[in-house]
Sequence to fold (602 residues):
Amino acid sequence: MSGSKDQRAVSGQDVRRIAELARLRPDQEAVRQLTEELNGILEHVRVLETLDVSEIDEEDSLTLDPVLCRDPKIAPDELRGDAPRSIAPDWRDGFFVVPRLPALDQSDSSGDVVE
Amino acid sequence: MTSDPTIFEIASRVRSAEVAPDHFVRESARRARAGDTGLNSLHAFLSVQEDTPDVLDGVLSGVPVAVKDNLCTRTLATSCGSRILAEYVSPFEATVVLKLLAAGGVVLGKTNMDEFAMGSSTENSAFGATRNPHDPTRVPGGSSGGSAAAVGAGIVRCALGSDTGGSVRQPASFCGVVGIKPTYGRVSRYGLVAFASSLDQVGTFGATVEEAALLLQIIAGQDPRDATSSNREVPDYLEEIDAGVEGLTVGVPAEYFTEALDPEVRQLCEEALDRLRKAGALIREVSLPHTQYAVPTYYILAPAEASSNLARYDGVRYGMRAPGTDSVAAVYEASRTQGFGGEIIRRIMLGTFALSAGYYEAYYGRAQKARALIARDFERVWEGGADVLFTPTSPTPAFPLGERTQDPVSMYLSDIYTVTANLAGIPGISVPIGSVGRLPVGGQFLAPRWEEARMLRAARGLEVLLGGEVPEVGWDSGREPSEGEGE
Fold:
């Protein structure tokens, strides 16, 4: 982020790095478009830089009621045990079975079971 | 249409066995299907079912309710308007849906929405846009556009939606219906697919204030499955709803009446305020000085939370998986890139950026503090003696389909009067106050946290004062497309 108005907040390289962090893979045209759009939005957001937030400390920003705790009692959970079998596309030994990755066929891994 | 029975009348006729338990459900299903056929189809629903009520002596017995597609249901898919969750069927019901069923209500179907509730026009749905029932060339608002259009078209009398930045109130305004966003914590979020967890709240739509209020009454209250739901007692929202506006102090925030406001919408707001004044309300100008920071604050915080909440859609645990990938990272990237629409990717990117090392304090940290200042503005106004506030719901009536899809910031600005309530956690309601041409316009009441009853009393008061001067709900009134328009 920069204080000068003509400098863009994010570059194409930044956008590719953010996409990597977000587990997205935009193509070259999408990177160009996202760079433009994110800079447009961040330009609009820049007004926050002018805001005096000195009177607010970290605790002040938590204005909502405290989160309530549940009673520490164990209740029956319909999704525990073998119950999810009824909604699972495939089910083995208490686990959902998901499609196997081709890469695993090249290793000696014996399972294709993912929780 | 106004001759249609209210939900009070529907439930009464079902309870007394005057009609079959599924009588009104079948009629609504017929209208839903009729609305979704032909040129300029409404496209309010993603699915429709004809079910019979579980309970025949409830307050909602036999009442068909349209449910936004981000509320989990066991019998119908919950796609959130997204390709990545197309065909996804939840193994459990959302708490609000369970409460609806326990009161005798019937889920008529799931309604179209902006993907993952991100949008203000219902054009971001992977399944196509919903149209405005009053003018098929215009948007119904969003993100709960399908629910608002279903009520506005007279298919159902009430519906459920969700409101993260105005997603119930803004479409209610555009479709000429009533839309309530309750206080944060008033209604359980269990089974509401998360977008921005500190802002999301389930809300209700009704053809009238009383009907939206009854639906809120049914879904409100603490839920052990949502730790942010409040254990405060839920008052009887209908008890004093007809007490009128006499003696109420109505604050009018100057910052909501700037040049951004359409002059005709401003005129309708001023006429509504005049009615309130003549009926004995005290109208007082107030100031919410941090209003201009609300949209920028929202568009940092909501995408930041969304980028975290939507990390779970990775092609493994839910929904679609991109074919032809050979590593876990590639599955994640390909499934997400192919499964998410453009607005989702934009917001995930924005949120990831705002939370990333080196930028966190400048964006996310600063926006959190701005949020506190915005909430404090409201506290000061309540302390200053305002009982409720009155504002426009959106700066303009419904805009044409396609007008803002290429310009994210202009789309975001249609939420300028609604995001503040989500940031401050307070309740808000949009109620019809008239129309510009045939396009409905809504006015918004805001109230202190947990003061829904007071807010509903003000909204019902205005509804009575304006009786008959607002557009009727009903698909027929908007069936004809504008000249030169078509599919």
Observations:
- Residues 28-45 of chain A form the longest helix (18 residues).
- The beta strands of chain A are 91-92, 95-96.
- The CA atoms of residues 99 and 112 of chain A lie 8 Å apart.
- Residues 1-51 of chain A form a domain with the Histone, subunit A fold (CATH 1.10.20).
